Amino acid sequence: MSVMAKYARIFWAEPTDADVAARNLSVDALRKHFANLDFKGAVRLAEAIACAFRTGKLADEFAAVVETAINELSPAFELVHHQQQGAVCAAVAALELVNVRLRAELTHSV
After folding, report:
1. Does residue 59 lie within any of the structural domains?
2. What is the DSSP string of the chain?
């Protein structure tokens, strides 16, 4: 199932399949990057995502990571002009990381 299909309309009125597929891969790259954060880094990430939705700007600490992940598949993407899209992708990646870890824990506990 496409993770970004239900979120893409936040920043695109009519997302294409190619747009959604590219963002799915970006979200996966971000999820993998975020998985390497220690506890303090994860807390800073959560704060950065929350602040981005409040202020409209992703914290510099994570902005480059988000922009790079999206640029890999969409070279024309510039975070400076699409902060909301970057914040949504970061948030979805963080949620996916939690979901993956929960599924793993549930699988191992059975």
Report:
1. yes
2. --SGGGTGGGT-SS--HHHHHHHHHHHHHHHHHHTT--HHHHHHHHHHHHHHHHHS---HHHHHHHHHHHHTT-TT--GGG-HHHHHHHHHHHHHHHHHHHHHHHHHHH-
Give tens-digit pLDDT for 21-49. 999 999 999 999 999 999 999 999 999 99
Which amino acid would we find at residue 2? S
pTM of the model: 0.87
Q: Is 63 inside a domain boundary?
A: yes
Mean pLDDT of 66-81: 94
Residue 69 lies inside a defined structural domain of this protein? yes
Q: Which domain holds residue 34?
A: 17-109
Q: Domain for residue 10, yes or no?
A: no
